[in-house]
């Protein structure tokens, strides 16, 4: 099963970016998306940002991930 989790870009350093996944921050590669910008949301899979998404969709998805992780008693960092 493949998971793609939304996160918010905090910093961009060349082809990588620091992305916030609801408090968990990780560096991801943003070379696969056009014009990544600080403050924008991206979907990340296996350490790569694969798509940009709008803020409302991202927040809705994040809420769903939180609900699922709570139901399954899984920490979000274990899903990344």
CATH class identity: Mainly Beta
What is the helix fraction of residues, given as a range? 25-40%
Q: Report the sheet-strand fraction.
A: 35-45%
Assembly context of the chains:
single chain
Q: Can you write the helix and strand succession as a string?
A: EEEEEHH
Give the total of beta strands. Answer: 5
Report the CATH topology name.
SH3 type barrels
Q: Please name the CATH architecture.
A: Roll
> Number of domains in the coordinates?
1
Mean pLDDT, nearest integer? Answer: 90
Reading side by side through the largest sheet, how are the strands ordered? Answer: 3-2-1-4-5
| Residue runs with pLDDT of under 50 for 5 or more positions | none
Provide a count of the helices: 2
The helix/strand class is alpha+beta
Give the overall shape, derived from the CA principal axes: globular
Walk me through what this model shows.
Strands 3-2-1-4-5 form a five-stranded antiparallel sheet, with helices on one face. The protein is built from two helices and five strands. It has one domain: SH3 type barrels (Roll). It is α+β, with helices and mostly antiparallel strands and 80 residues long. It is 28% helix and 40% strand. It is globular.
In short:
The chain is an alpha+beta fold. It is 28% helix and 40% strand. It is globular.
List the SSEs and their pairings.
Blueprint: E1 5-13, E2 16-21, E3 24-29, E4 41-45, E5 48-53, H1 55-72, H2 76-79
Antiparallel strand pairs: 1-2, 1-4, 2-3, 4-5
